[in-house]
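[Q] Does anyone have a clean C-alpha cell version of this?
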Amino acid sequence: MKTNELAFFGKMAASVTHELKNVLAVINETNGLTADLLGMLKDAPFPYREKFERSVRKIEEQVHRGVEITSRFNSFAHSVDYPLADVDLNSIVAQTVSMAYRLAALRNVELRGAVRENPIMLFTSAFTAQMALTIVIEAFIKCMDGGSILIKVTDDPGVPGLEFDFESHSPEGVTKEAVVELEEWGDFQELASVLDIHPTWRTSDGGLTALSLAFNGVMK
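[A] Here you go.
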C-alpha cells in the first residue's frame, strides 16, 4: 500500500473511531440515567428491578470494552500519520498484543506482552513494526494448538529487541514449524529488511525454545 493510501486509511479510520466513541458516550449517559432512575425508585415496588439492574451493569461493562477497543484502533490508525517517528518499543508491543489478542484466542492461545518500565525509544515506522510483529504472531499461532505466547521487550546494551517465549503441548514441534514458517515469510523478510530487524533462535538442550528479534539501526 502506498504512503498516501495509508495516510487516507489512517485518517478515515481515526474519524470513524472518533464517531464510535461519541456513540458509546451517548449510550453510557443514557444507561447512567437509567441507573439513576432505578436508584431514585429503590423503595418503590418493581418486579423487574433485578433484571434492569443486571442489564445496566452489562451495558456499562460493554461500553467500557467498546471504548477500550476503539481507543486501541484509533491509536493504530494514527500510527500511519508519519512514515518515521519517535516511538516507544513498549507501546508497539502493547498495541500489537491488544490488537492481535482475538486472533490468538480463536486458536485457544493466550497472548501476553511484558514491557519494561523504562522507555525503549526507536526512530522507526510504528505501523510497519506492528505489521511485522503481527505476521510473526500469526505464524506462531498457526503452529500452535493451545498454550501461550509471551512477548518480552528486551534492552541489551545498544540493541533493543523482543523475545518470544511460548508454551504448548509440543514446544519442539511448534518451534520446528515456526522455523520453516520464518524462512517462508516473504512479507516479514521484506519488512524486517526495511526496519533492520534481525531474527535469531535461542536454543537449549531440548532444542529450539524462543525467537528473538533485534532492532538494529533504528534505536534513537
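[Q] Thanks! Anything notable?
[A] Residues 3-40 form the longest helix (38 residues).
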